[in-house]
Design brief:
Elements: H1 2-22, H2 40-43, H3 47-56, H4 67-78, H5 87-97, E1 106-108, E2 117-122, E3 132-138, H6 142-155, E4 161-165, E5 169-175, H7 181-192
Antiparallel strand pairs: 1-2, 2-3, 3-5, 4-5
Helix pairs in contact: 5-7
């Protein structure tokens, strides 16, 4: 019986090697459509070892060149349409009126949500279950925002996420505690801007 398992394992190993050897290794073109992975510094001390392991196995090698992504983020920040609700005034109002204090406001890659610009953060509540993740994306008009809202809901269905469109913007709040009253308050504030 042990002999059977040994032969089966060997056969599986050989078939895996043949299938991976028959596929050419993927190569990046340096375009924005390449996979952007963490830099070696972000990976920590084993970053170089991870990259070497991927390269040795014929897998995609994580890029350490994030210039394209940084350029895209800078371009989005410089060309915000300012057609409706803006992220900074919304975050300030949430902070002052709804006690939703974002620890660090960060820009996100808007193009992933078909947006002109996105930003957000996570609240600083001490209990992780009480934290909210807030994201707001800006668009050139209401039509683009509504289309993106439909895209987000179909492509990224997130449990306990609430998304709404208002005045060329989409606000998303993810709350682990689905009954958090701050969520309703935040959307009322959003709709008032």
């Amino acid at each position: 019986m042990n002999r059977f398992y040994l032969v089966a394992a060997f056969a599986a190993l050989v078939s895996c090697r043949k299938s991976s050897a028959s596929q050419p290794p993927a190569t990046g073109s340096g375009s924005a459509q390449d996979i952007v992975a963490p830099t070696e510094q972000q990976l920590g001390s084993d970053g170089a070892a991870v990259a070497a392991l991927h390269k040795a196995n014929g897998q995609l090698v994580p890029t350490t060149d994030t210039r394209q992504l940084v350029g895209d983020l800078q371009n989005e920040a410089m060309h915000r349409p300012k057609a409706g609700v803006l992220a900074e005034p919304l975050f300030d109002a949430l902070d002052q009126k709804a006690t939703i204090h974002l620890g660090q406001r960060q820009q996100y890659a808007g193009f992933t949500m078909k947006a002109s610009f996105c930003a957000g953060g996570t609240t600083t509540d001490s209990a992780p279950a009480d934290r909210l993740t807030v994201s707001m994306c800006e668009y050139s008009d209401d039509k683009a925002a509504k289309a993106s809202l439909d895209f987000m809901n179909s492509r990224f269905p997130i449990k306990n996420a609430r998304r709404e469109e208002h005045h060329a913007a989409v606000l998303t709040i993810v709350a682990l505690n689905a009954t958090d009253a701050r969520v309703d308050q935040a959307f009322k504030i959003f709709e008032s801007l």
